[in-house]
Amino acid sequence: MAERDLLWMTAVVFIPSVFALLLIFVPRGKEEIMRWLALAGTGLTLGASIGMFIAFYSDVIDRNVRGTDPRSREWVSLDYRLGQIESENIADPQKSSDWLTSYPWIGRFNIYYYLGVDGISMPLVLLTALLSFLALIASWKIERFVRGYCMLFLILETGMLGTFLALDFFLFYIFWEVMLLPMYFLIGIWGGPRREYAAIKFFLYTLLGSVFILIALLAFYFTDVRDFVGPRTMKEAVAEAKSEGRTVSGNQVEIHTFDLVVLQRVGKAALQLLNGQPVTTSFRAEQAKAHLEELKSRKGAPEEMIRKAEADYQAALNDAGLKKRLEQAFFQPWFQYTMFLFLLIGFAIKIPVFPFHTWLPDAHVEAPTPISMILAGILLKMGGYGIVRIAYPICPWAAEQLAYYVALFGVINIVYGAFAAMAQSDFKKLVAYSSISHMGYVLLGIAVWTAPERAQYWSWGMNGAMFQMIAHGITSAGMFFLVGVIYDRAHHRRLDNFRGLYEPMPLYGGISAVIFFAAMGLPGMCGFVGEFMVVLSTWNYNKIFAVLAALTVVITAAYILWTLQRVFMGENPQYRNYPDINVREIVCVTPLVVLSVALGVLPGYLLLNWMEPSLTGLVDTLARFAP
Amino acid sequence: MMELLELFGEHPGWYFVAATLVPLLSFVLILLASAMWCALRPFRGTPVCDALFNLFGGEERGRTPAYVATGAIALAFVLSLIGFIRFTAQQSQFETQIEQSQRTLHDLRTRAAAAQGKDKDELQEQIEAEEKKLENKEKMWESARSYAWQGHFDWLRIRPAGLSDPDRGTALQLGFKIDSLSALMFVMVTFVASLIHLFSIGYMSEELQPEVEDHQVHTRYGHLVRRGRFGRFFMFLSLFCFSMLNLVLADNLFQVFLSWELVGICSYLLIGFYFERQSASNAANKAFIVNRIGDAGFILGLLILWTNLGTFHFDEIFHRLRAPLTDSHGGLQLAGRFVRGDLDPAGAADGRQSLKYSPNGAQVVLFPLPQDRAEHYHGVGPDRDDRVDVFDSPKKDQHGAMPYWLLVAAGLGIFLGCVGKSAQFPLHVWLPDAMEGPTPVSALIHAATMVAAGVYLVGRCYPLFAYEALLVIAYTGGITLFVAATIAIVMTDIKKVLAYSTVSQLGYMMLALGVGGWVAGLFHLLTHAFFKALLFLCSGSVIYGCHHEQDMLKMGGLYPKMKITALTMLIGVLAIAGIPLFTGWYSKDAILAQALGFVYVHPQHLFLFLLPLGTAGITAFYMSRLWLMTFTGKPRDEHVYEQAHEAPWTMTVPLIVLAVCSVCIAWGWPVYDAEASWLEHNVHHAQHHAVLADFGNIDYTVSKDHGEYWVVAKKAEENERLYAYYNHHLAGNLALGLVLIGIVFAGLIYWKRILDPAEAVEQFPGLHAFLMDKWRFDWLYSVVVVRPALVVGSWLAWFDLRVIDGIIHGVAYLSVLLSKWDGLFDNSIIDGLVNLVGNATYAAGARLRNVQTGFLRSYVVFLVVAAVGIFMVLAYFVRMAAAG
Q1: Which of A63, A479, B351, B396 is the most buried (most CB within 10 A)?
Q2: What is d(CA B209, CA B230) in angstroms, rounded to the nearest whole number?
Q3: Contact B289 A557 (CB under 8 A)
């Protein structure tokens, strides 16, 4: 019997690809069938992701977070769950309910088909599945090369979902690149008049980022991580080495890995080492420490056993081999700095961070509406996700050293994007720049690294950043969709030429008001929560940043209200006979409206309560070792 | 159902929660119905859709939304009234007992002072017993209060990063806490709002038509014709009421901020109700953006408090900032005040520092929350230890410290929010423009709700304002009340005069709060709500009667045409002018008395008394001018006069009710006593002890004067409250004199026409233009804020387009150049393998060419080369790894 979690996750990732294959068999000219088939694919994916969420929730979150044991919150973390699999002490790891699954893929290089989910990736998976479904509904008006469009769209979806679920860096990278090509074609073929320019700009920018990520990925692979994997992995590696006829000394072999969770452990060790603390994060030391603490907490444990455990722990800390291996390049400042910067630039281009942001307005303006939705709603989130999942945990020391600059760029994004948005006269460009401004909060929230006793505030920032990603996914997709609706009717996007749309299109106007107010950060809507949490955490880190971020709310209000005024208020006889939005459009936008209100009213119950343990755990593990 | 009844029985605070939620429910209902209506409209024709469409209103949607909204707010009023009565009953029951106890204690003490020997010991024992009794009573009241009248839940909670930490982290909460101020505000807001709803049913009846002609919007085809928006109006009104009630309900600053923004957006929607008019949409934007400037300050205040105190809960903030009244050894000299000190760098050790008390120190001590009274607690201050250990990142039950300037900044930040919302100088510019909204909205915004929110919040947050912040508040109020009153003199639009008078009256309230007249300021807020709502609705009735004519230069002599409106408006004018026995008299006198008391102690701030005193006269002048210009003399415009008529009963009934309230809502016994107001005494219950600590360091006790028990100062120390108490009549009489002069002056000019206003204009043309330009604030903001922001925006957009993309394009051009050279080089040493790859790629490219010509081919080549390159790099690394 295969593992349940493996089935769920694989289903979520590959259902779209399967439907992409099925599309080949639809006879030419049956465009309507192609569309419905693609819709079924995305719909099924959405269903599967919801099913996966329910199963994940009951297996991991419900069992642990609601538990009475205060330590149980830690059990949500990927690190802990991997430890359960690796440890020899546990006879039968709960393989199908731990939501980590790995199968060898390219054994020669330790590359695994390795998927896993936690509170950080789960919301993004749900968002991706939902937005893909809605974007496909929004794609109904695509008339050219429908088969190609749908196939590329579905492959893109597989790429996005895979990126969020992959825990093997190599696999992550593959999915990352898989996403790139369809996006290029979707902009380049189905886009507006300057589509080729926009597509190549998008492609080159992102490829540049990918190259940086690739270098970091390879560099990490050359580190011997044998001290940070469990005995089970070691045993397998030794067996394999023996079967290949290599010599094995002391029952250990070098282990190189793309495993993100293991690399995070190594990153933690580097953080300790470079901060001049003893390295307590090797697998052996952690096990010994857990054993020791358990003995100590148990009443009536024999003195002798405790002493022995204590000695074990000390021996694990002072292991000569470990000491030697801690001299590897990975643990050098230059390496940490370089790799962190590489990863940061790679992901920052996706977010996008000033000054790497100019691909975004062009790509958005030229991309067809549904692709803009995907681009703003999901692709930008990959940058933030990459930083939270990879750049920060694997290179934490450099991250801490450079936190100020990361936060600085976050603030620049916020202010720059808002001002630039105000100057735009193209509706889509305005929304694109507002995305830049809003994604600045994500970067800022991630970056406000604080000392352990005030880590509380960083925790707010980190959670706020994640929430902002989800909220922005909803509102920006909604805004691009709404721009698309009016573009379909007026065939232009010049803000100065609209006016007076409330009167002919009251429902459209009302929905637009809701979505735009949500983007503006009005309380009771989703945009407010993330922004507010990030700003709350920022004052503790840097007062000037906080002041700038807080003052930007004025500019944000100005450009959003000015937009609403120019598009909807006033009167314009030219547009008096426009039809209000139709059923397809209502179906497409209603979930976004409902979510932007629901997440704003009940952010805790709907999202943060189950997302927060993973993020707070991450903050804790990093802040704990800060100087 | 039974459970619900039990809930209300046990926790009557839920009456207020229910009163808050009812308007929200009405909003949601109307919103969903309108959305369904809009969605179904295109599908009329099929029977099912037709039936549904008719269910949600049909072609002629009728008054249902108005009934729903009015019913909701009326229900809210009933609920708040029940809650208010229950609260007041419980409060007075306990307070009577406490007062009884205090009296006994006072008697015993007097006797003990006189007695000697054994008697004295006996009396001492009795005193101790009585003290214990008193303490128990106070505790009982405290616990009854927190049980029945408070509650909250987590909206967002982030657990601490230390996973095994028993502390549950920090949370943003939603909750409610009722005291006599919030209970009164509930009753006032729901009452006034109910009347405004009722009035609106008549006033907005035009919007019921399927097609409405907007006379102020001209199109190529004549006046604009649009659909009526009756339902939309009441929908926004409901949301507005919910936001405002939620703001009053809140027990923490975060919830206030939520409602704050919601109130802002509602005002935006309502001011922009006639959004076809350019002026209306501009005014709506202006209102929201100016408010957002204030909100940015509010956010900064929130950040400072959050970072230093880790909570937004009012009570927790005040407990931590203000010294406790007593410690385990008895009363403290600095009870209820900020305790300042300097950090001693020598005493730093493991997360703690030593703080030394000094009256002007750079730090403020944060006190531990009194979680467990049983524990021994030793106070800080001149009469206790002058040193205390403070934690660097204190938990809630530990001593901490924060810089004093940050405390001042937090106060000013929150005050900036209030400046925006309550339209104080220099952010008052939005309010007169907000007159673009329908008149009932003006009444709701200006009287009961939005602008009241700022004053209410300053009152609520009083304990966190440091002395410097209070001074800023007082001067802001002083400047505002004067500036606005001067502009009101020259305005001729009836609603704009009222708008400026509102700004001016709000200035009075702010000034009162700044000089320690906490009760006076909030008392004025309540009375003002009634007479300003009355005045606005009267002006609405006039405008309605004159067919949307707002210019007073076209009115005059309307008294015979609309007697009810004229008489009720006269009552409003007398109330705002401060004629004795009208509500305004009680509250304005109290403010002036407090200002005088403040100036006695701080003579350098003389203006804080002169400005409100003089403005009392100006107020009387311009309000009389308004009434006389509108209702007396000869009609200035025959056409308007001919058409004018009295409003229907739905509009006059609210006027009469409000007029009655404007006369007698503040009465007490005896009526002629300016200090015996029932309302004022009720507000007094909610006063935080910090106000006394800051402005009246009096040892309060109970003495028998006037045959009644009065709370007076025992120690005749020089302080503001004492002087205010003794000079109440002086201040009141001075003001009354000026008011009478103002009224007589207005009468001479506009009624008897002995003096000609045109002459005055001719004599001071510069001044007149300056006032007509509203002190040129709009011009100033346009030059200093709006245009620079737009210019910066366009610079940045240019920077993106030219500089950043310019660099990108330059790099692209260079690499193309480079690859051409490279290509030449490549061609000469090309080998078969690359040819093969190239051919295969070209073949693939050719097949895709029908998708996109030319461009795609080069792209695929590029991609393949890149992929090959990547794998070569990979192979190289792997080989190296295998070797090493």
Answers
A1: A479
A2: 9
A3: yes
Q: Which of A73, A454, A586 sits opposite B393 (nearest CB)?
A: A454
CB of A623 within 8 Å of a chain B CB? The answer is yes
CA B376/CA B380 separation, integer angstroms: 13
For each successive 10 residues of chain A (627 residues), what is the average pLDDT?
Answer: 80 92 86 91 94 89 63 76 74 69 81 89 94 92 87 92 93 90 88 84 86 89 85 83 77 84 90 86 84 80 83 84 84 90 91 86 89 92 93 91 92 91 88 92 91 83 93 94 89 84 86 92 91 92 91 90 88 80 89 93 88 86 76
Give the Å distances, CA to CA, from B122 to B106, B127, B129, B363, B554.
Answer: 15, 9, 11, 46, 80
A322-359 pLDDT per residue, tens = 888 888 888 888 889 999 999 999 999 988 888 888 88
Cβ contact A582–B42 (<8 Å): yes
Looking at the DSSP assignment, which residues form a beta bridge with residue B789? none
Distances (CA, A) of B446 to B425, B443, B514, B530: 16, 5, 21, 11
Q: Which two tokens stand for residue B826?
A: 């490549």
From the number of C-beta atoms within 10 Å of its C-beta (0-12, 13-18, 19+), residue B734 rates as middle
Q: Which residue does chain A place closest to B34, by CA atoms?
A: A507
A543 to chain B, closest Cα gap in Å: 9
The strand pair at B363-366 and B400-403 is best described as: antiparallel
Burial call B108-119: b when 16+ CB within 10 Å, e when fewer:
beeebeeeeeee
| SS3 annotation, A468-514 | HHHHHHHHHHHHHHHHHHHHHHHCCCEHHHCCCCCCCCHHHHHHHHH
pTM of the predicted protein model = 0.90
pLDDT tens profile A435-471: 999 999 999 999 998 877 788 888 899 999 999 999 9
Q: Which residues of A touch B859 (CB under 8 A)?
A: 184, 200
Q: What ipTM score was computed for the predicted complex, to two decimals?
A: 0.91
- CB contacts, 8 Å: A420 with chain B: 793, 796-797, 800
Q: How far apart are CA B312 and CA B7, in angstroms?
A: 26
Select from A437, A381, A371, A379 the least CA-distant residue to A409. A437
Q: How far is CA B291 from the centre of its chain?
A: 10
